[in-house]
C-alpha cells in the first residue's frame, strides 16, 4: 500500500512484525526475553524480565518526526497494535480502576471536610462531651436561653454531635416566696412531654426539647469563684469524662472576693492542673473576664488579670492537652458606662448570650477545628416579653400593710411603688425586690395608701404597672 511518497509495509510472522511508514521505521521484536520498540530516531526499550522501562527524551526530538504535530503527540499505532496483548489491557484497566477509587475517596473526604472540619454528624463518631464550668453568667437566669443554649445550637447547625455534661441542669430559679400565701404555679405533669419542661429547668419556652436532654447539663453556680472549684474539679472530670472543659470563671474572685489578679491567675493554673491530672488529654477553652458597669477599681484589676491570663495560657498548654484563650471580654458589649449586652450590668441578656457563645465558638473553630465557621451574630437580637403580675392583694394589720402579687415566670425582680392616696405617682421612684411582697411599717393610722407593682426582666425591659390598690391603716 502506497500513500504519496510514503510507503507502509506490514510483515507478519511468528518471530517479528515490521511496520515501516515513510522515512519513519517502527520495529517490534517479540521473544521470550524482551521486546524492543523503535520509533524513528528515538529508541524506547521495554525489558520485561528486568522490571525496567527506559524512555528517552522523546519530547525533545518529536519535531524531527514528520508524522508528529511538533507538539509532543505520538502516533497511537503502537497502542492499537499492542492492544491485543493482555498485559497492556490489564495495565490500563488497573489504572482506570485506581483512578475511580481515588476520585471517589477524594470526593467523600472533601464532602465530610466541607460539612465540618471537626466532627461531622456521622453515626460512627461518638458525640463530643462538653463540660461548662462557670458562675452565674453561665448558669443563667430563669426564662433565659443562656449562652450555653446558643452554643448548643451552633453545634447542631454545624452537624457536630455533642453532649453537654455536668451535675446541674437548671438556670437560677426565682426564690419561692411562700410567705405571701400565693403559691408558685405548678409545673406541668411529666407525661405531657418526654422529660423535663423548660419551666421545670428555668429556660425560655421556645428552646428545642432536645436541648433539655443533651445540652442543658453544666457545672455552673451563681456566685461561683475559681477558689471554690479548685478542689472539686477533678471529681467532676472523673464523673463526667468530658473531652473539652469550657471555663468561665474569675469574675467573682476579682469582684466580690477582692482577690488580686496574680492570686486569681494562680488559682486558674491550679484549676487546670487538677483537671488535667484526672484526664491527661483534656482540652481547655478558658475565657477571660468581662468588664461590667462601674464598681470601684474592678475595671483596672480585670484588665490586669486578662493581660496576665493571655501571657500564661501558652505556658499552660501541652501538645496532648491544649489550653486556648476565649476572648469573652472583647466580644461582650459591656463597659463601665454602657452595657447593652447585660440585663443588670453584668449578667447576659439575649444579646449577651449570643456574644458569649460567639466568643467560645471562635476558639473551638479556629483553635480546635470544630465546625464550619464561628457562630454568626444575628442582625437583630431576639426580644423578651415581660408580663405584668396578674393579681395583687393587700393585707393590712395594726403593725404593717403587706402588699403581694402573683409570680411572673422570668422576672428578674419586681419594682413596687407606694404613696398616699390622691398623690401623683413618682415615675422614676420604685422599690426593687426579688420577693413577691412588700411590707410597709411607716404608715400612720387612718391614712390611705396606694400600691402598684411591675415586673423587672432587665434594665430596659419592664412590664406595665398593675392597677393601683389602696387600703387604710386600721
Task: Write structural notes for this entry.
This protein is α+β, with helices and mostly antiparallel strands and 474 residues long. It has three domains: 2-84, no CATH class; 128-366, Rossmann fold; 392-472, Sandwich (Immunoglobulin-like). The protein contains 14 helices and 21 strands. The strands form four sheets. The protein has a seven-stranded antiparallel β-sheet with strand order 1-2-3-4-5-6-7, with no helix packed on it. Helix 11 runs parallel beside helix 12 (298-316). The protein starts with a strand and ends with a strand. It holds the Pfam family Lipase_GDSL_2.
- Average pLDDT for all residues: 79
Strand count: 21
- The value of Rg in angstroms is 39 Å
CATH superfamily of the largest domain: SGNH hydrolase
CATH architecture of the largest domain: 3-Layer(aba) Sandwich
Domain SGNH hydrolase-type esterase: 234-352
InterPro entries: Ester_Hydrolysis_Enzymes, SGNH_hydro, SGNH_hydro_sf
Transmembrane segments: 91-113
Keywords: Hydrolase, Membrane, Transmembrane, Transmembrane helix
Describe how the helices and strands are arranged:
Blueprint: E1 2-3, E2 6-11, E3 16-21, E4 24-29, E5 35-39, E6 42-47, E7 52-55, H1 58-61, H2 77-82, H3 86-115, E8 128-134, H4 136-139, H5 147-157, E9 162-165, H6 198-201, H7 209-214, E10 219-220, H8 226-229, H9 233-240, E11 244-248, H10 251-255, H11 261-278, E12 283-287, H12 298-316, E13 323-326, H13 328-331, H14 350-366, E14 392-396, E15 401-405, E16 413-420, E17 431-433, E18 437-440, E19 448-458, E20 461-462, E21 469-472
Parallel strand pairs: 8-9, 8-10, 8-11, 11-12, 12-13
Antiparallel strand pairs: 1-2, 2-3, 3-4, 4-5, 5-6, 6-7, 14-15, 15-18, 16-17, 16-19, 19-20, 19-21
Transmembrane segments: 91-113
Pfam families: Lipase_GDSL_2 (PF13472)
InterPro entries: Ester_Hydrolysis_Enzymes, SGNH_hydro, SGNH_hydro_sf
